[in-house]
Amino acid sequence: MNKALAMFESLVGQDSSKSISPLMRWLNPTLLSAEAGKLEFSYVIREEMTNPMGIIHGGTTAAIIDDAVGAAVFSLGKPHMYTTVNLAVDYFASAKAGETIIAVASITKNGNQIINTNCEIWNADRSRMIAKGHSNLIKIDTDRK
Fold it and tell me: pTM score, two decimals?
């Protein structure tokens, strides 16, 4: 098992207040499950995550997807860093402040240069899909200045 996956497995059931990602700390999901290339998170929608209609903002949903798939890539334990090159989101239903949503992020294709990912956002009982997104991440040269 790789170190990144071992770390995620040790965090199952905990919130993300100690995440290395500042965005994930702000979103503050609870990690529900972890396996290499697949993570599930639970989020409580706070008022500051909503639009003027009181429902989750599309940008918040996109940020959840982007951060969750990034964590799923990190869980692979690869020696290189990857960054998002595109993100497409389809929105299906709304969720209000105070509600809980579930994000299921996984790897579609684990390539060497490009990793294809997807993420589904569900309501708490997984009976209604809120949104679905897919993204590609590219290996970056971390020595680059």
Answer: 0.94
